[in-house]
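Problem 12. The chain below contains 1226 residues. Write out its predicted structure in C-alpha cell notation.
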Amino acid sequence: MAASPDGELLLLATGLGQLLVMTQDWDLLYEVSLDKDLAAAGSVQLSWRGDGKYFATLVTGSGVSTDVSQLKIWERDTGTLHASGENVPYSQTAMAWCPSGARIATSCMQPHSTSQPLIMSFEKNGLKRDKFQLEGPLDMHVGYLKWNSNSELLAMVVTTKDWIGVQIWSCSNFHWYLKQELRFPSTDELNVLWDPEDAMKLVCWTASGTIRTLRLGWKSAVLDSSIALVINGYSLLVSPLSLAMVPPPMSFFSITFQAPVQVVAFLQDIDRGCLIAARLSDSTLSVVTLPKLSDWLDLEGENHTARSISVLSDLKQSISELRHLTWLSSGALLGALSVQPGSDKVGISGNFSGTQNGVFWQTYPGSREILVEVDLDIVADKPSGIISDGCQIQGVQETPVKQAVISIIKNHAPTSEQNADAFVQLDDGSVVLYTESQAASQFGRTVIGKFARPCPWMSMLQSGTGNVIILGLDEKGGLEALNHCVLCRDCTSFVIHTAADSRSHLLYTTQRDSMHVVSLSDPSTLSDLLSKQEVNMRPESMGGRKPKGVAAQEENLKVRPLWERGARLVTALGGHDVAVIVQTIRGNLETVYPRGLVLGAIAEALKQGQFREAMGLTRRHHINLNVIVDYGGWRSFCVKASEFVKQVGRLNHITELVYALNEENIVDTTYKNLLPPFPESPSPGDAATELLKSQLTANKVQTVLKALRLGVEKEIPDGPAKELCILATLAKSRPPELKEALQRIKSLREAELQGEVAVELEAAEQAAEGAKQKVILSAEAALKHLLWLSDAEIVFKEALGLYDLHLAAMVASHAQRDPKEFLPLLKELEEMPSHLMQYKIDVRLGHYESALQNLAQGGETNFNECLQLMMDHAELFPLGLHIFRESNKRVDILEAWGDHLVQQEKFEDAAAAYCSCNKLQKALNSYRSGGLWRGVMTIAGQLNLPRSELVSLASELGEELQAMGRPAEAACVALEYTHDIDSGVRLLLEAREWMEAVRVASLYSREDLTTSLIEPAALECASALIEEFTEGLEKVRKYLVRYQTVRQRRVSLAAKLKAEEDGEWPDDDTVSEASSHLSSMSAYTHGTAAPSSVTTGSGRGRKNSARSQKKAKGGRIRAGSAGEEWGLVEYIRGMAVSSRMLEEVRRLLSVLLLQGHYPVAHRVQSSLAAYQNDQKVALESVEKDAEADNMQVVNPPPANSTAMSTPSSSVAWRLAVLDPTEGDCK
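Solution.
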C-alpha cells in the first residue's frame, strides 16, 4: 500500500496480483493486473514519484532456479504501463523513488549468496543506472529505503543479528559513500522519516519510545597542511592536496576501521605528525598517527587497517555518541554528548546498560548536553609510518551544558584575553571558552560573543594586527563575524587562507555562483569589520550599478565567477601556495588561483627579495609583469636590477619583462588596493648605489631597461641569447635606442669578418656545446631580431645615420625593400665625398645641425649652401654663427637672420640682428614696423638725420601710433619731437590721461587749452559715464529678476517630474524647496555663453569692447531657450566693472574736482558705487544658488576681454572727499 504525494490516491496490491487505485472516498479509480505468478509467490513493492505523475511497482517472485524481479512504471491518470524493466535474478525487498525522479533505488539480494545486499538504481524508463554493495556483516538485511527531499541522501534501515540501524548514503562523482551509521539494539524496532521541508533532518524512533532527531550537515575535513579526509563507510580516504590533487573516491591511501566512521577529528602536531581520531558506529574510538608529509611517498596506494582503543564498558558509554569531536591538544579530545533530562545514563536512547563508576560517570539532572573531555596517552613520537596502536584512554572529564552544542573549534592562537583551548558554540549562538581540564563549574562563565543565528560552520583566524576573529556560517547563508558584522547574506561556503607572512584572506562563495576574496589584513576592511557595520563586499550591494574605471578592475580581481553551478570551497593551500580547491556539485576537484591571493604571494616574494619566485608566479598566473617593477617603486627596482637578473637567470623570462614594460604604474591602476603596502626600508648608503640613483631619469621604461641591460651584461655569460636580450632592451626603450643597437650589430659583423664563429639563434645551444672556440650571434640574426621589434623604415634611417652604407644595404634587404628604390640611392651616396655624403644623409633624415656641420667642412666654397640651409631652418643660425665665428661671412649670416626675423614679424629681434651687423637703416625700418618709436628715434639719431627729416619722421610716427590706438604714445612723440602742444593735449584727452593733459597745458602756459579742451571733454565723459552706470543698474536688476523667474520655473518643473516618477504629487512648498537636489535634471546647467562687461571704457575703447563682447556672447539671450538660465548667470557675472575702468574714473574725478565741478564728480562716484554694489549683490545671489545646484558658475572670460582682468575689489578708486559719510573707503 502506498499513498500518492498529494494524498489524493491510494495504491493497493492484492494477493491475486491486482493493483487497485482508489480515491480518498475509497472509490475505485481503476484496476490493473500485475504478474499473477510472481505476485502470488513473492512480494510487491510500491513507490510514487515526487510529483505524483508516475508510480512504480516491483514484483519479486520465485522463478525456475532463482528469484526474479521486474520493475514497471505506470501512469497515474490512466494506469497505462509507461515502461517495463528486464527481469533481474535478485530478490528485491525494498524500493524508493527519489523526489526528483532521477533514480528508483531498490535493495537486491541474490539467493543463497554469502555477500551483503546490493542497492540497484533504475531510470524512469526501467533501465539499470548503477549499483553498489552495502558494507557490514554478511547477515545484513535491508528493511526499507527513504530518500530525503532534495534526493541527495538515501537512508536505509538495516538489520543484523546483533543490532538494527540506519545507514545514510550519498552519491558523488559516480560513487556511493556510506556517511553515517546509527545502531540501536536488535531487540527494538526502528523507523525513520525524512523531514519534508528540511532536507538535512532525519527523525528516528523505536518501538520502545526512543525518538532521535538528527540534523545533518556537510563539513570539509582538511588539515592546515592540506591533508583531506573523506569518510567512506569503514574506510577513511586520505589525500595530501598539496602533493597530489586526487579527487574522491580515489585517494593517496586509505585507512580501514572495524566499523563505519561517524565522526573524525584531526590535529597537525609538530612532534607527532598528524593525529586522527575517529569515533565509530560500534561506540569505539580509534586514534591513528600519520607521519610528516615528507615521509608519505611510501604510503601511496596502501590500505592500512586501524585498531580501536580498548575501552572499559563504563567508559564506552561516555564516548558512544560523541559529536563535534575536536582535539584540544595532542593528548586530549573534546566532544558533545546528549542525555535525557533527569537520566543517569549517557546516550539519547537511554537503553544501553553499563555500570556507573565515579571516575568515568556522573549524573547531571536536568542537563541536555554534556561536554566530554577524553584524556589520551599517545606513546609514539615522530612516527615513520601509520600507527594505530599504542594509544590508551587515561580518563574522562564531563562538563554539563544547559543548551545544545552547535559546534566546537580549537583555538589555534590563544591570547591573554582568550587564553582557552577551544571555542564552544551553544544553541542560542553564544560562544563560550573551554580550557583543558577545567572544572565543570567554570564552564559558561566566559562568553566572548554571540552570533545572530546559530552557525554550525565556524572557523577562527588571527589578523595581522593580532585580533582574533571568529567567523560563522548559518544555515540561511549568513556569513557573520562574531560580535562584529554580517559579511554576506547568501554565502554557501567559506575558507581562510593564511599566507607565509601571516596575511589572511577570506574566500567565500555565494548562491550566485561567484567566489569573493577579501583581505582581512587590509586596514580599511578590518576597521569596517571591527566597527560592527555591515561590510558591502558584493557587487550586487551597489544597487545594480557596476563600478567603472579602476574600481571596476579592482572589483573584477576581488570577485571571480564560478564556472559550474553549485561548486563549493574545500580548502585554500596556505603558506607560499595560493591554490584554492573547489569541489563541483558532481564531486570533481578543481584548483583555482584567485588574483587576490596570487598578488599577495607576489608581494611577499618581492618583499623578501625573491625575484625568481615572484617572476614564476606572475608568468604562471598571467599577472602583468610590470608589478615586479612597480611594487616598491621602479627606482628601487633599478638599484636591484642586477640581483633580479642573477636570480631569474633565464634570458627568455627577462625578455618577457622587457616586452611587457610600460610607463603605467600598475600598482596604482589595475591592482590598486589589492597589494599590501611595501615596507619602507632604509636604502643602502654605499657610493655605488647613490651614484646609480643619481643617474636615474624620470623615464621609467628607459631607465629600467638600462638597468636590466647593465645587469644582463654583468651577470649573464656571453652568448647569442644574451645579445638578443640586450637588443630587445634597446629596441623597447622609449625612445628606442636604435643607434646603439645598430652599433652592436656592426660590431658583430666586424667580429664575423675577423673569423669569429657566428650562428643563428636556433643553432646557438648546439654550436656552443660542440665548438671549442667562442660562439657569437650572427649579425644577420641580430638584425632580423631588431627588425622584428622595430619599424623597418626607422631602422633603415638610423642605419643611414651611422653613415655605414653597407649596414644600410643589409637593413634594406632584410626589410624586404625594393632594390630599385634603395640601391640607386646608396650608389649615389657612395660616389660622393665623405662630407657631402654625410650632408645628404643628414638632410634626408632631418638632422640639420649635423648637416650644417658636415657641409661647413667643405670650407667657404659651400657657404652659399650653408646660408640657404640656415634660412630654410632658422634654428641653425646660432650654430652657423658659431661655425663661422672667425670668418667675414658672419655679417652675411646676421643680416640673413635679421631678414628672417622680419618675415616672422619679430621686429625687435630683427633690429638687434641688424644692429649687430651695422645695418642701421634696416634696423630703423624694423623698429618702425613694430611700432617701437623710441627705437626708431634712437636709430635716427645714430644716422644723424637732418632736423627736417627728423620732424617729418616724428609726424609720421605719431599718425601711425594714433592709428594703432596708442594715443598716449603719440602724444609723447608730438610733444617731444614736433612740439605741437595742441595735438599733444588732444591725444592725451583721447587716452583719458586727464591729469597729464592738465600738467602739459600748465607746463607750456596754455591755460586756454584747459578751458577750451580739457574741461568740456571731462564734463562730456562724466555725463556719458553717469548715463551708462544708470542704464547698467537697470539692466542688473532686470536680469536678476528674470533669472529668479527662470530658475523658479526650472525647479518647479524638476520637482514635478520627480514626483511623477515616484508616483506622488508635491505641493507648492515642496516645489520651492527642491532646488538643491534636482539640478542635475535641468538643461540649463550645460550652457556655453561667455561672460561680458558693460562698463569697460569710454569713447573708442568702449565701442571696441562692446563689439568684442557681442562677438564673444554670440548674440542676445533668447527668452525661453534651454541656455537662458546659464546665459543670465554669465551675463550678470560679466557686468563687473574692470580695474582699468576704475582707474580711469578715479583720474576723471580728480580733474573734475580740480576744475571745481564737485557735484558732477559726486554724481559720477555715486552712480558707479550704486551700480557696483547692485552688481555684486546680484552676483552673490546667483553664485549662491548655483553652488546649491552644483552648477559650475566660474567660467573665465576670453583672453581678449577686459572684464575682470584685474579684480575690481583690489582697486582703490573712490575719493573720500566725495563720500564723507563712509570715511576712508575704496
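Discussion. The mean pLDDT is 79. Students who got a different answer should revisit the alignment rule from Section 12.3.
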